[in-house]
Predict the structure.
Amino acid sequence: GTDEEELTIVKFYAHYCKICQRAGMQFKKISAEYPQVRFGKVESQVFPDSANTLRDLGVSKFPFIQIFRKGQCVASFSTGPSHIFVKKVRDTLDTCLQRTPEEWDAFTTEFSNEIEANRQARESLLPRATP
């Protein structure tokens, strides 16, 4: 697909979280299996008001995954223990990669409210332009 249709997966984690540390190794391994997907990670403490910011983004516990396509969050989930992490991430990526354009249209229509709420939360993180 085009760059715009490329998937980006972001792992939210906390440096003190033992499950996150184990999942970090798994995340790196999965990234090698999906060269067509961009991988990124965000440490929870990077946000000044991290608890509220993460809640606004829909991040409920760590590790937490969000997958983006065309700048829209198309999957958002907590992975649970590290032995579940790999299967859940792979299964979700596989589902996303197998969707046709028509299936994506139906998906983004069905979940438009959630997608928009996530977009607004992400937009609120951007620095405000000063006049």
